[in-house]
Amino acid sequence: MKNVTDSFFSLGHWPSAGSFGFNTDILATNLINLSVVLGVLIFFGKGVCLNDLLDNRKQRILSTIRNSEELRKGAIEQLERARTRLRKVEIEADEYRMNGYSEIEREKENLINATCDTLERLENYKNETLHFEQQRAINQVRQRVFQQALQGALGTLNSCLNSELHFRTIRANIGILGAMEEITD
Protein backbone atom coordinates (compact mmCIF):
# COMPACT_ATOMS: atom_id res chain seq x y z
CA MET A 1 0.00 0.00 0.00
CA LYS A 2 2.95 2.25 0.62
CA ASN A 3 3.92 2.02 -3.05
CA VAL A 4 0.49 3.27 -4.11
CA THR A 5 0.60 6.32 -1.87
CA ASP A 6 4.20 7.03 -2.85
CA SER A 7 3.26 7.06 -6.51
CA PHE A 8 0.54 9.64 -5.88
CA PHE A 9 2.91 11.86 -3.93
CA SER A 10 5.55 11.56 -6.54
CA LEU A 11 3.27 13.25 -9.09
CA GLY A 12 4.07 16.58 -7.56
CA HIS A 13 7.83 15.98 -7.72
CA TRP A 14 8.49 15.48 -11.37
CA PRO A 15 11.94 16.00 -12.58
CA SER A 16 12.65 19.47 -13.93
CA ALA A 17 12.24 20.39 -17.54
CA GLY A 18 14.92 19.50 -19.90
CA SER A 19 15.16 15.95 -18.97
CA PHE A 20 13.03 13.42 -20.67
CA GLY A 21 12.52 9.88 -19.42
CA PHE A 22 10.09 7.05 -19.11
CA ASN A 23 8.13 6.59 -15.95
CA THR A 24 8.03 2.91 -15.22
CA ASP A 25 5.53 3.18 -12.44
CA ILE A 26 2.52 1.40 -14.01
CA LEU A 27 -0.10 2.69 -11.62
CA ALA A 28 0.86 6.32 -12.08
CA THR A 29 1.15 6.12 -15.86
CA ASN A 30 -2.17 4.29 -16.23
CA LEU A 31 -3.98 6.88 -14.21
CA ILE A 32 -2.49 9.69 -16.29
CA ASN A 33 -3.28 7.90 -19.57
CA LEU A 34 -6.87 7.24 -18.52
CA SER A 35 -7.45 10.82 -17.49
CA VAL A 36 -6.01 12.09 -20.79
CA VAL A 37 -8.15 9.68 -22.87
CA LEU A 38 -11.29 10.54 -20.95
CA GLY A 39 -10.60 14.23 -21.23
CA VAL A 40 -10.12 13.99 -25.00
CA LEU A 41 -13.25 11.87 -25.39
CA ILE A 42 -15.34 14.22 -23.34
CA PHE A 43 -14.00 17.33 -25.04
CA PHE A 44 -14.21 16.15 -28.65
CA GLY A 45 -16.93 13.54 -28.39
CA LYS A 46 -18.88 15.67 -25.95
CA GLY A 47 -21.99 13.62 -26.09
CA VAL A 48 -22.05 13.13 -29.83
CA CYS A 49 -21.18 9.50 -29.69
CA LEU A 50 -22.26 8.89 -26.14
CA ASN A 51 -25.57 10.74 -26.51
CA ASP A 52 -26.25 9.05 -29.83
CA LEU A 53 -25.41 5.68 -28.38
CA LEU A 54 -27.55 6.33 -25.35
CA ASP A 55 -30.41 7.70 -27.49
CA ASN A 56 -30.21 4.68 -29.82
CA ARG A 57 -30.13 2.35 -26.88
CA LYS A 58 -33.04 4.21 -25.29
CA GLN A 59 -35.05 4.02 -28.54
CA ARG A 60 -34.35 0.30 -28.88
CA ILE A 61 -35.38 -0.30 -25.28
CA LEU A 62 -38.55 1.78 -25.74
CA SER A 63 -39.44 -0.02 -28.98
CA THR A 64 -38.78 -3.35 -27.30
CA ILE A 65 -41.04 -2.28 -24.43
CA ARG A 66 -43.74 -1.13 -26.92
CA ASN A 67 -43.45 -4.41 -28.82
CA SER A 68 -43.63 -6.31 -25.57
CA GLU A 69 -46.70 -4.32 -24.53
CA GLU A 70 -48.35 -4.99 -27.91
CA LEU A 71 -47.51 -8.67 -27.65
CA ARG A 72 -48.81 -8.68 -24.08
CA LYS A 73 -52.07 -7.01 -25.18
CA GLY A 74 -52.38 -9.47 -28.06
CA ALA A 75 -51.76 -12.36 -25.68
CA ILE A 76 -54.35 -10.99 -23.25
CA GLU A 77 -56.87 -10.65 -26.10
CA GLN A 78 -56.15 -14.18 -27.25
CA LEU A 79 -56.48 -15.39 -23.68
CA GLU A 80 -59.84 -13.64 -23.34
CA ARG A 81 -61.02 -15.10 -26.67
CA ALA A 82 -59.86 -18.53 -25.55
CA ARG A 83 -61.66 -18.12 -22.23
CA THR A 84 -64.81 -17.03 -24.05
CA ARG A 85 -64.57 -20.02 -26.38
CA LEU A 86 -63.93 -22.27 -23.36
CA ARG A 87 -67.05 -20.92 -21.64
CA LYS A 88 -69.10 -21.48 -24.81
CA VAL A 89 -67.72 -25.00 -25.19
CA GLU A 90 -68.43 -25.73 -21.52
CA ILE A 91 -72.00 -24.46 -21.94
CA GLU A 92 -72.43 -26.57 -25.09
CA ALA A 93 -70.93 -29.57 -23.31
CA ASP A 94 -73.37 -29.07 -20.43
CA GLU A 95 -76.24 -28.81 -22.93
CA TYR A 96 -75.08 -31.95 -24.74
CA ARG A 97 -74.67 -33.70 -21.42
CA MET A 98 -78.14 -32.65 -20.27
CA ASN A 99 -79.64 -33.48 -23.67
CA GLY A 100 -77.80 -36.78 -23.60
CA TYR A 101 -79.12 -37.56 -20.13
CA SER A 102 -82.65 -36.59 -21.09
CA GLU A 103 -82.30 -38.60 -24.34
CA ILE A 104 -81.08 -41.58 -22.34
CA GLU A 105 -84.00 -41.18 -19.95
CA ARG A 106 -86.44 -40.98 -22.90
CA GLU A 107 -84.90 -44.04 -24.51
CA LYS A 108 -85.05 -45.85 -21.18
CA GLU A 109 -88.72 -44.92 -20.78
CA ASN A 110 -89.45 -45.97 -24.37
CA LEU A 111 -87.64 -49.27 -23.82
CA ILE A 112 -89.51 -49.90 -20.57
CA ASN A 113 -92.83 -49.03 -22.23
CA ALA A 114 -92.07 -51.24 -25.23
CA THR A 115 -91.05 -54.09 -22.92
CA CYS A 116 -94.24 -53.65 -20.89
CA ASP A 117 -96.31 -53.66 -24.07
CA THR A 118 -94.54 -56.78 -25.31
CA LEU A 119 -95.05 -58.51 -21.95
CA GLU A 120 -98.72 -57.55 -21.97
CA ARG A 121 -99.17 -58.91 -25.51
CA LEU A 122 -97.35 -62.10 -24.53
CA GLU A 123 -99.57 -62.42 -21.46
CA ASN A 124 -102.68 -61.93 -23.62
CA TYR A 125 -101.39 -64.44 -26.15
CA LYS A 126 -100.65 -66.90 -23.34
CA ASN A 127 -104.15 -66.43 -21.91
CA GLU A 128 -105.73 -66.85 -25.35
CA THR A 129 -103.63 -69.97 -25.97
CA LEU A 130 -104.63 -71.39 -22.57
CA HIS A 131 -108.29 -70.62 -23.24
CA PHE A 132 -108.05 -72.19 -26.70
CA GLU A 133 -106.31 -75.29 -25.31
CA GLN A 134 -108.94 -75.55 -22.53
CA GLN A 135 -111.76 -75.31 -25.07
CA ARG A 136 -110.06 -77.90 -27.27
CA ALA A 137 -109.57 -80.22 -24.31
CA ILE A 138 -113.19 -79.71 -23.26
CA ASN A 139 -114.37 -80.41 -26.81
CA GLN A 140 -112.21 -83.54 -27.00
CA VAL A 141 -113.62 -84.73 -23.67
CA ARG A 142 -117.17 -83.97 -24.88
CA GLN A 143 -116.54 -85.85 -28.11
CA ARG A 144 -115.22 -88.89 -26.28
CA VAL A 145 -118.07 -88.79 -23.77
CA PHE A 146 -120.54 -88.41 -26.66
CA GLN A 147 -118.89 -91.25 -28.59
CA GLN A 148 -118.85 -93.48 -25.52
CA ALA A 149 -122.48 -92.58 -24.76
CA LEU A 150 -123.43 -93.22 -28.36
CA GLN A 151 -121.57 -96.53 -28.37
CA GLY A 152 -123.21 -97.42 -25.08
CA ALA A 153 -126.65 -96.44 -26.45
CA LEU A 154 -126.05 -98.36 -29.67
CA GLY A 155 -124.91 -101.33 -27.68
CA THR A 156 -127.99 -101.11 -25.50
CA LEU A 157 -130.23 -100.64 -28.53
CA ASN A 158 -128.63 -103.50 -30.40
CA SER A 159 -129.01 -105.76 -27.43
CA CYS A 160 -132.62 -104.65 -26.84
CA LEU A 161 -133.79 -104.47 -30.42
CA ASN A 162 -134.78 -107.44 -32.27
CA SER A 163 -135.54 -107.42 -35.92
CA GLU A 164 -139.34 -106.92 -35.50
CA LEU A 165 -138.87 -103.87 -33.28
CA HIS A 166 -136.34 -102.63 -35.75
CA PHE A 167 -138.83 -102.86 -38.64
CA ARG A 168 -141.50 -101.13 -36.62
CA THR A 169 -139.18 -98.23 -35.79
CA ILE A 170 -138.26 -97.87 -39.45
CA ARG A 171 -141.95 -97.83 -40.52
CA ALA A 172 -142.77 -95.22 -37.89
CA ASN A 173 -139.95 -93.02 -39.10
CA ILE A 174 -141.05 -93.46 -42.71
CA GLY A 175 -144.59 -92.48 -41.69
CA ILE A 176 -143.32 -89.33 -39.97
CA LEU A 177 -141.29 -88.45 -43.03
CA GLY A 178 -144.31 -88.99 -45.29
CA ALA A 179 -146.48 -86.77 -43.12
CA MET A 180 -143.88 -84.10 -43.23
CA GLU A 181 -143.81 -84.36 -47.00
CA GLU A 182 -147.58 -83.87 -47.26
CA ILE A 183 -147.44 -80.80 -45.03
CA THR A 184 -144.73 -79.15 -47.11
CA ASP A 185 -146.61 -79.83 -50.41
Automatic annotation (TrEMBL):
Pfam families: ATP-synt_B. CDD domains: ATP-synt_Fo_b. It is a single-pass membrane protein. The chain crosses the membrane at residues 31-54. GO terms for cellular component: proton-transporting ATP synthase complex. One of its GO terms (biological process) is proton motive force-driven ATP synthesis. The keyword Metal-binding does not apply. Its main location: membrane. It is found in: Membrane. The keyword Thylakoid applies. Residues 65-99 form a coiled coil. InterPro entries: ATP_synth_b/b'su_bac/chlpt. One of its GO terms (molecular function) is proton transmembrane transporter activity. Keywords: ATP synthesis, CF(0), Chloroplast, Coiled coil, Hydrogen ion transport, Ion transport, Membrane, Plastid, Thylakoid, Transmembrane, Transmembrane helix, Transport. HAMAP family: ATP_synth_b_bprime. F(1)F(0) ATP synthase produces ATP from ADP in the presence of a proton or sodium gradient. F-type ATPases consist of two structural domains, F(1) containing the extramembraneous catalytic core and F(0) containing the membrane proton channel, linked together by a central stalk and a peripheral stalk. During catalysis, ATP synthesis in the catalytic domain of F(1) is coupled via a rotary mechanism of the central stalk subunits to proton translocation. Belongs to the ATPase B chain family. This is ATP synthase CF0 subunit I. The lineage of its organism: Eukaryota, Viridiplantae, Streptophyta, Embryophyta, Tracheophyta. The gene is atpF.
